[in-house]
């Protein structure tokens, strides 16, 4: 069979086009595995040399350093800003993660609290995004290293603010994991717990059974008047069944021994950010105070809210939401996008109002219940001495 040169070229073009179409289909179908492969450090954590640690006595270790204050002190742990590849943990000062921190993380997640008091945000060697896409021991060690930085930062925050006033803890996504650690490791102190307005663990799964274990001194917030409690949710649309399953079953949280355990089979906590409590009631769109796509907005500037974007309802521990009307409040389609932290805050105004109301109610509790006596700063050593007989006894 003779094929002309023109036909041969045409067949080659069709064949090449077909190959690229198949390659594109394969890339779409396998994009999650490809994203994991590209961002896998491929070095055991035991032989990995982590980036140098921060020194929280230095202002350079903070995106916003703590200062002494008589008002509200807010400690914010930011979400994941480094996807992976070379390192298991984020190198401090790396340009692209630092850009994401200031462009997306701080405006969207610390922003709602900026008018309430003094905000402190540590730089820390956050675990890479890849380390949250696998349950290998290397990945767990990366998360533990990140938490060790956050724990040191929180102790420095307490020492440097020298405050006796209200405290708010905020953690979004990976930051939520580390705030859960702080609540278990530090908020057992009744004097410190007394000062807690609330802890905000956002877009991170919190099993209900933790409140019978490591969080037994706290409760999920029951209403917006509640204080010394936890506001937490994971917000998803009903159609995001894959993401919901991953959130509900593959999230890992600290247990009382400091180990990471999966949430599979455990009921989750859901506090509706519109109602400010654990109710399962439906909140219609007209009750939504406002979302914000705050990326790129400078600190201190109040972004324009976009209200009435979604209804909300807690169902089986998941906060079900509508697809926002504004395209600025939807995750973009792209390589690894569904794993990455969202570059907007769907409940920016709701959270800001929630925290403001709880500060007021904590002050009311101070007025009606009084305050615990502060712990002794200096201890007095007591030396045992023998009991002597009483003369004439």
Order of helices and strands: HHEEHEHEHHEEEEHEEEEH
Strand content: 5-15%
Terminal-residue CA separation: 129 Å
Let me know the number of strands. Answer: 12
Number of helices: 8
Structural class, from helix and strand content? alpha/beta
Q: Average the pLDDT over all residues and give the rounded result.
A: 89
Protein model, in words:
The protein has helices spanning 5-29, 31-39, 95-110, 137-161, 174-185, 190-194, 241-250, 348-369, and strands at 62-64, 73-77, 118-122, 167-172, 196-202, 219-220, 229-233, 235-237, 252-254, 260-262, 312-315, 318-321. Strands 1-3-2-4-5-7-6 form a seven-stranded mixed sheet, with helices on both faces. The longest helix has 25 residues, at 5-29. The protein contains eight helices and twelve strands. It is of the alpha/beta class. The protein has one domain (41-369).
Features:
single chain, globular, alpha/beta, 7-stranded mixed beta sheet, 393 residues, 3-stranded mixed beta sheet, 32% helix, 13% strand
Topology at a glance:
Elements: H1 5-29, H2 31-39, E1 62-64, E2 73-77, H3 95-110, E3 118-122, H4 137-161, E4 167-172, H5 174-185, H6 190-194, E5 196-202, E6 219-220, E7 229-233, E8 235-237, H7 241-250, E9 252-254, E10 260-262, E11 312-315, E12 318-321, H8 348-369
Parallel strand pairs: 2-3, 2-4, 4-5, 5-7, 6-7, 8-12
Antiparallel strand pairs: 1-3, 9-10, 11-12
Helix pairs in contact: 4-5
